[in-house]
Amino acid sequence: MLLEKFHMASLPAERGFLHCGNAVWTYGRFHQTVESACERLGAAEIGPGSVVAICGPYEPESVVYLFALAERGAVVVPLVGLSDDVRRERLRVAMADWVLEKEEGNGYGLSPAGEDQGRRTTEGGRHPLIAKLAAEGRPGLILFSSGTTGTPKAMLHDLVRLTEGYSVKAGPGPATLALLHYDHIGGLDILFRAIASGARLVIPEGRDPDGVARTIERHGVEVLPASPTFLNLLLLSGALERYDLSSLKIIGYGSEPMPESLLRRLAEAFPGVRLQQKFGTSETNAVRVVGRSPDSLEMKVEDDRFGWKVVEGELWLKSPSRILGYLNADNGALDDDGWYRTGDLVEETGDGFFRIVGRGSDLINVGGEKVFPSEVENVLAEMPEVRECRVFGEPHPLTGNVVAVEVVPAEELTAGEIKKRIRTFCRDRIEAYKIPVKVYPTETIQIGSSFKKKREGQ
Q1: Is the pTM of this model over 0.90?
Q2: Yes or no: is domain 2-162 CATH 3.40.1190.10?
Q3: Domain 363-456 is in which class?
Q4: Most CB atoms closer than 10 Å: which of 56, 186, 389, 398?
Q5: Which residues are within 8 A (CB) of 271 and not within 5 positions of it... i.e. 6 or more apart?
Q6: 3-class secondary structure for 152-210?
């Protein structure tokens, strides 16, 4: 399966692969450990159709089991850093049969998921999508959406199809930081690309700015894939002055909108480093795109595996690596012709480029006028008084909604002062209905399913 697909046996056995703290796993050691793990899973009769959750941090051993389960034709459910309640619910939704869990000093323990978990979607049977994979002897992968707009969706991938787009190169590729976890489509894309190019993949000592910067300096990391939110924190933390980040050649950004002001600040802070826009969805995997220019957010799809079109302003994607379906949600966004309705609203330029302007679900309707949160956030990001912000809608009896913002002030200001400065700054830059009516100063921006609910209840 994956070992053969990535030509693992042909990679130089002594070449470093996974760097984690002081430990260095070579490609040879990784390959051998995967084969040993396959024997263990075989002894437990784990094979096609078995649904197995990996509960542990991003480390060499957890990646070993990801590959070993794929070799056995099982369905993998990676779960990282969850509370007991959330983990229990995801095991139930995924219909897990087994759990591989990190044990203190003893590797990973294997145990049944529990009587209330496995194979429960139909009377006495598996989910039909999982049953289909099992009948074909193909490995699967279940990922969960973030749940920021409701209950997290459980997405079932065919792991063979998901990895078909990775062309194996002689390598070695550039040393890359594994900042995103392996339960995230972006993190998996980074993992698979590293293996395909025989690169070093460096797991950070910590996922805070100092931990990341220290890891880059120590290991000579060349590629930093990160979200705009993290990159903003990296600039604000002062870590650039405390660590030598001169080894960086590429900063890839994606998974959320990039403010134009932040893109400019990154270009100033990292002269000579290529800023590379990334794009993809959990439903389709990463899409190869090219930007119009380093300082532009306009991009063009340059991926023979993907088709794309814009329908009433919404981006649709077609890919052989599209998910088989959702296990716990309506599949209306997946049509019979292979298209996936992304929910991303875009503006086309007429020459093959487009720019994502926001999510349809995030659109704020103010008295019939449409407001994209990112548009307002880009304006507020230009204010010296604003360190971070997040714009959203709040119900209003007259206009239906008003624009609200949660903001981290860059200096000590009262709620009234920061609200007055925001309104004054925005007055000549955006239309009146887009100017935030509600302003909530805070010390940190909380992003998650509770965010909008908290504000709507005020």
Answers
A1: no
A2: no
A3: alpha beta
A4: 389
A5: none
A6: CCEEEEEHHHHCCCCCCCCCCCCCEECCCCCCCHHHHHHHHHHHHCCCCEEECCCCCHH
